[in-house]
Amino acid sequence: MNNETATRFLEAYAAGGEVEGGWLYAKAVQQSRLDFTPESLPRLDHLLKQVRERAKPTPADLDTPKGRNFTSLLAFYVVEVLQRRTGAPFDWHDRESALAVLPPGAQLPEGPQTRLVAVNDDQGAAYWPLGWLEAQLAPDGPRRLASDLVEHMVQQVERHGPAVWWRAAFMLGQMAAWEMMAAAGPEGIVMPTILGSTMPRTFTMLGSSLFGGESLPELVRRGAERMENNPDGATWQVMGYDGILTQDGRQLDSIMVVAAAYGDRPFMLKIAFPYLPARDGLGFAILQPVLRESTVDKETFERMFAAIERGIRSLKWSDGQSWEAYRMAATSRPAPPTTFVMPVVPSVPVEATPMGRALREAAAAAAAPAASAPAEGKAWRMW
To answer: Which residues contact 33 (CB under 8 A, 6 or more apart)?
Structure first.
């Protein structure tokens, strides 16, 4: 079971049809007018009550192909309502594949209720609405309104901040891996790149200075303006570029990544991911990341870093290498001398642009007091 299956079921229902094989109680399901709004949830409750009291389905009925299609459709529907309300993305799994992507130590019950598991990678959260459906259709099962179930899931997804913050953090990690893969490549050329919610799978390079035109600092400045103006009305955007990190008297090549989320509670985060280029017989190596700027408090950021790590691990490197392998390589490389300056084109500090100032001002109400914010320049261990 995967996201394509969920989409196929929901689109078939919305079009007034059914998937191959059909589902039980098709007429009653269509008459319920499930339109993906919060207002439809009482109608879902009424549908389940009618099926429970009139059709009186047995576990055997629900375990037929049509029965499984019926419960699958409603499970997909509940999570789709949740996604539309919060913006939090979910991927569909069976129990085995869900355990493979959840954080180590996660546990899921065995049985039909985990035939479908919705996983939110950003926070490592999992839901199995088939368990709720099973209880609502059983003659003596515990009753719980669909609106109460969705509200509970919303509170869980947003317990540490808006879901869009966590999506932006996850994509920050993915952008870091994308740009680091370029830095580790044969040419070692990293172009400023943007990723946004309107096209979340498309890494858009801001241009190429290799063939004339804008310089790298100009491209970064243009990207910062795009993040500030948000012309596509994105809920989040992430930009990555090659820069210089000055720390402990050293200047280090670094992949700089800035994430921004918009809306009622805007958010901004900037992290430097320093690296050592391959040279003098020594291989490429990734060092510990360094926090440059954040509009969230220390505790929230530390929780958020797990989402960043999952974003990093979510990208498969085209050359078969991995972030982890290059991170481990750093242990065998001596630290560069304090006078060593790596030859890259320094880029415009994003925090000095109007985008940085505007987002900080807009996020003032949601940001923690400065005294409790993470200190700039502090290194954070990912593993």
So the answer is: 40, 43
Which tokens sit at 164? Answer: 């869009």
Q: Which residues contact 300 (CB under 8 A, 6 or more apart)?
A: 160, 161, 368
Sorted by sequence, the CB contacts under 8 Å of residue 326 that are 6+ apart come out as 180, 184, 275, 283, 284, 285, 286
* Structural tokens at position 327: 């991170």
Burial of residue 219 (CB within 10 Å: 0-12, 13-18, 19+) is buried
pLDDT at 45 over 60: yes
- CA angle centred on 94, ends 89 and 99, rounded to 5°: 80
- What is the DSSP code string of 154-211? HHHHTTTS-HHHHHHHHHHHHHHHHHHHHHTSSS-----EEEETTEEEEEEE---TBT
Convert the pLDDT of each residue in 165-212 to its tens digit.
999 999 999 999 999 999 999 999 999 999 999 999 899 999 764 545
Identify the sign of the CA torsion 359, 314, 347, 239.
Answer: negative
Q: How far apart are CA 296 and CA 368, in angstroms?
A: 6
